[in-house]
Amino acid sequence: MSTDKFAPQTEAAKIGRRHFLKGTAAGAAALAVTPAAQAQNPSAFAASYSAPSYQQIQRDTGLLEAPNPERSVVRPGSDLMVQVLKDMGVEFVASNNGSSFEGIQESIANYGAPPNQMPEYITALHEESSVDMANGYGKAEGRPMAAMLHGTIGIQHASMAIYQAFYSGTPMILIVGRDDGFIQAHTANDMAALCRSFTKWDAQPKTLPECLEALQEAYRQAVTPPTGPTVVVIDMELQKEEARDVVVPPFRPAVIEGIDVATARDIAQQLLAANNPRLATGAFRTPEGVAAAVELAELIGASASTSATQGPMGFPQRHPLCGPGADTAYDYVLGLEANSPQLSLQRPSVAALTATRDTAGIGFGGLRANAPAEGRGAARPQQGTTLSIDAQASIPAIIGEVSRLMTPEQRRLIDERKARHAQANQEARMSALRDAIEDKKKGWDLSPVSTARIYAELWPLIMNEDWCLASPSSFSSSHHMQLWDHNKPYSYLGGQGAGGMGYGLGACTGAALAARARGRIVINVQTDGDFNYAPGSVWTAVHHQLPMLTVMHNNRAWHQEFMFIQYMAGVRGRGTDRGNIGTTLRDPFINYAKLAEGYGMKAEGPIDDPTQLAAALQRGIDTVKGGEPYLIDVLTQPR
Amino acid sequence: MRAIMNKISKTILSLTLTSAAATLAAQEPSAVNGDASAGAQTYYVYGCYGCHGYSGYGRKDLNNTGSAILASEDVFRAFMRGRADVAPLLPVTDMPNYPANSLSDAQVSDLYAYIRSMPKDVPETGDIETFQKILQAAERPYQP
Fold first, then answer.
1. Equal CATH topology for A261-355+381-431 and A441-635
2. I need a labelling partner for A599 at 20 to 30 A (CA). Which of A96, A117, B74, B90 fits?
3. Is residue B81 very low, low, confident or very high in pLDDT (cuts 50, 70, 90)?
4. Quick check: B98 contacting A, CB < 8 Å?
5. DSSP string, A281-326
6. What is the pLDDT of residues A299-356, one digit of tens each?
7. A124 contacts A95 by C-beta, under 8 angstroms
8. Residue A27 burial (10 A CB sphere; 0-12, 13-18, 19+)
């Protein structure tokens, strides 16, 4: 803050002021001239009056401090901050406006050639949406995008989405503006304290060089296990200051440790000695981890389990080695981010941070290793030996040792085993698919539309596309798990993280940001209850031309709660005829097609005739492949 | 303790229903005494569709399941009353209990009639083009 308003004025300024007042008096007289007189003698009018600038008036009436020459920056600090984001490959910054980060927002808009690319500013209509977008993007790509939040109030709007991203271990960078010289209710001494318990790391740098380092460290911390959201609180003064000769430091990527060579050799020997080895696989950090797991499975001819139907970064579901294999009597199971009765390599989760980061004492029951054995989110008991280390970073060393130790005879046996596994897994797949279809076809032609029919009709339309199912599917009965093939790291992005509603639309929008430049389409089977928390992402999807097909699972209720209330009434013997109170979306029904159209999105529906569904989905897919989002409102069975 | 009590009450209820169903098993399809259209209204108002779907297909199918619970109106009524009369206040399943003061015998009778009237809708797989496409695609070799 300048103190010029209260400082003694210089002699030059006083003279200037006197001259100005004199001119003003003359000008006032001139202003009394009628328009007709001006028209008769315009040159005389112009000569008699030189209008003061707005700034001159303000300064001379003491309403505003004089411009501080130091503010006339040519190299603002926020330009350097944006350069750091560019260097790290941060594609997007999603944000809803806030005066505490105007410097960075302006730099994103104007700095760089071309400006507003890498990162591109993504306009969110709610801070929760912006963080959900970062969550969807992070899950799909395994690397961070950024969300920018206004001081105090923006963080609090975003806090539920941050909490869920923390539960999911999604890497993201949260940039929080802080402006101590403006609205005091929007600043805080320790801004990150509002979300410290459910973020991995935070910093509030004091200088511009510290700030640039902090942004880089935030990226490294976000992607290093345990992965999760990180926070950098950036003062407005740092954003506005003249950078002068400050240099952007080169970005050093994170170094993520894997197992040592001796351990890798021991694992390799076990895998090669086994007659029927198996890989139990979970979610890897990035697509590169998935590729490494596939390479290892193919090298040793092991059958593999997958988590691909549960969430991102899983082993390809239709890979010939994925499945139970030809023989389920496995004699050595290597767990890669999954439990094994012998040895598991599992990176630490954010639960490991609770002791040091959970200043609010939340406890994170769903993350605790010693969580109760009953209840949702209960921890599964560990089997065998678990090494707390990143599997993805460990696999290359195992591959190296296996390749070095493998004999030609072992290679021949492995090739035979792979062929047996491939045949058995295909037979298992076809059998499971036929069984699933027997279940999915129930009520096929009845109205309202069955949720199974939505997923079934979608699959032939997208199976030859590069697709990503970004919406949580449990409330629509997860029919894709049995019907679709989840072969890409981003095929299915899993659930909300902590079961919080309002996540789906924002997360799908974020996944669609990732999809847009990659020729991919995003499928969003959108529950109606979830939609209504933050529907503004519909506008964001239109505004940024995102390839997202939204199919409303419109059961006109928060249906899980509906059933819970019915159960409670039933236990109490009071009947279930009032279970709809507070749990249903009736009187009036919501028309989602009209709502979407109001936001500018092409839409149709509501559809309650199942025979109309496939054609509508085809229109939706065609539109999305053309680069525009689309919404189809479908009246559905409850689940 | 709660888990043990649940198990006991579940066993009692199961035995009661099994006995009733066994008595009726050899008989012809039982009579329907209620009003199906009134039952449809009750089915909606009481939110039965929540778990069983609007047409008897849902998380818990009612439609053409061959369930012993639907063997007769008497067995169905015994099931609806089961927890209230046999093991009150102990949740045996996710199914709410319906004592007579919350759902009358006449309403149960109507519900039973509606459930029995539900149209079967399980087409042959070969008649659904969508599933044929899905099965054919699954036969194709894996493409990374």
1. yes
2. A117
3. confident
4. yes
5. E---SSHHHHHHHHHHHHHHT-EE---TTTSSSPPPTTSTTBSS-S
6. 999 999 999 999 999 999 999 999 999 999 999 999 999 999 999 999 999 999 999 9
7. yes
8. middle
Tokens of A580: 């709809």
What distance in Å separates the CA atoms of residue A526 and residue A452, rounded to the nearest whole number?
Answer: 14
The CATH class that applies to domain A77-240 reads alpha beta
Residues 560-589 on A with a CB inside 8 Å of B are: 562-563, 566-567, 569-577, 579-580
A201-203, strands of its sheet edge to edge? A120-123, A92-95, A146-149, A172-178, A229-235, A201-203
Instruction: Indicate the domain borders of chain A.
Output: 4-68, 77-240, 261-355+381-431, 441-635
Residue in B61, B103, B137 closest to A575 by CB: B103
Query: What distance in Å separates the CA atoms of residue B69 and residue A200, rounded to the nearest whole number?
Result: 53
The C-alpha atoms of residue A151 and residue A235 are separated, in whole angstroms, by 10
Burial of A625: CB neighbours in 10 Å, binned 0-12, 13-18, 19+ = middle
Topology of domain A441-635 in CATH is Rossmann fold (3.40.50)
Among 3.40.50.1220, 1.20.120.520, 3.40.50.2300, 3.40.50.1100, name the CATH number for the domain at A261-355+381-431: 3.40.50.1220
The Cα diameter of chain B in Å comes to 61
* Contact by Cβ (8 Å): A285, A347: yes
End-to-end CA distance of chain B: 52
Contact yes or no for A573 and B84 at CB 8 A: yes
